[in-house]
Amino acid sequence: MTDRMTEIIIARFSTSYEVNPYPRKVQYPRLRQNVKDLLDAAPKLKNETVLLKYFCNQAAKNNSDSLALSHLLAYVDVACYSAAKSTYDAFQTPELTLADYLQIAKLYMVDRAVELCTKFDRTQSQIQTYLYRPLRDAIMSKVRKNDPTQRQSDWGLLRSTPKKGLKSALQNFGIPEPNLSRCFLTWQGFLAVYAPVKAGINQRLPEPTAEQWEAIALFCTEQRFPHSIQPFTVPEIKAFLQTCVKALRASTHIQFDSLDAENPELELETAEQSEQQASNRQQEMEQCDRLQQMTTELASAIISLSRDFPDARKMLILEHGFTGFNQSYIGKEFGIKQYKISRQLTSYKKYLLTSLVKWSQTQANVTLSVKDVDRLSTLLDEWLTWYCQNAILYKFLETTLKLHPALKLEITLLCHYYGCERVDERAIAHNLNITPTELQGKLVQVKTILQTELHNWLHQNLALKPCSLSAIDKSSALLVEQFLANAPYALLTLERR
User: Fold this and answer.
1) Is 383 helix (H, G, I), strand (E, B) or coil?
2) How far is CA 444 from the centre of its chain?
């Protein structure tokens, strides 16, 4: 077995999924080291199925091996995350977060991991598919036991809440004055104005209309500031009411026992390691925030640039979205020489870089040196490649994959083919009850449809000429292949259920 496959096996039995403060994998050092030592001592266990059976046997003994159970819980954690994410996306309730859904799934598996993993057959399905239904049922069963008021819409909750209940919720939520009084005022305005048509038994009350929002803002202005020249605005009203909703949801939030409290062996990090991880997460969050702000700024700058130079967005997408589609091809599309294309792209990027530098100086309070600007220029090129490929082209392909009638039927095939580290075409074809030749034919059909739809999009939205579409064929085929290799198939296949 290759070192890469060994590393994959080690990771599967020592990695957990977390979603706070952002979705990520967390590998436990003790679990990792235990699997590594075990495989070094017993090479015959260097097979995922064999190792899974070994941990099942160890954990099922009378004196249950808690470390073996920890490995099983790590192994099924990807299924917990997939089921939680899919169920949350489809049936999310306002008061519960994705982390709550994931915690329900994890707690469910604590007492069932041994039994379910013992029955699991890797040759028949993936662990995510195998455990999806019981995990989904467990999540929904827990959610449905929650306070019925939690299933109300925001507007129904606001209408049915008494003044005393709202006051208590806001105080417990830590809302200070004067915002506390303003929240009460907007709530009173909401009750005075909002009078929707009676909803059916299974219907949720809708959001106020634009006219009702204006009426609520006017009510609050007249009640609180009859002589003020600064009346309440609709965005302010919405913000205060949203604070009320968050406080009310939090007041009846489902409380979960800690998974680690149920299984002390799962807490494998020292206090020092945990503190360091918390520091690293904080730094990562701050970096993500800066990158998100930078993305928003640059995306707005591209829109502004396109107003003055209509071809700018098109030229940037062709330059950074497609590997191998060089400036000579772009020049043919616009009917100008390559060196002029180069000058125009340099001019466009200079505009974006200037916007980024101004943003850094005004919003982020950062003074940039010449070297900093040079590094920022390199970062801009990397960002443009990410933005044009992921935020524009990949996003279109993802939407097409989900909505195209012919492609919906092939999600399972794509999940089997691209959703594993090692492709075994014969095994995949056998699982799908088709021949390897038919498997290849279906893959070609999927790629052809995606590439055709992409070309149609380029023609309709970028007005790309037929000759350019022909020239971009190889680059677009590569883009489709890269997209298919990175699409989240586990979640896509669950969304179809």
Assistant:
1) helix
2) 28
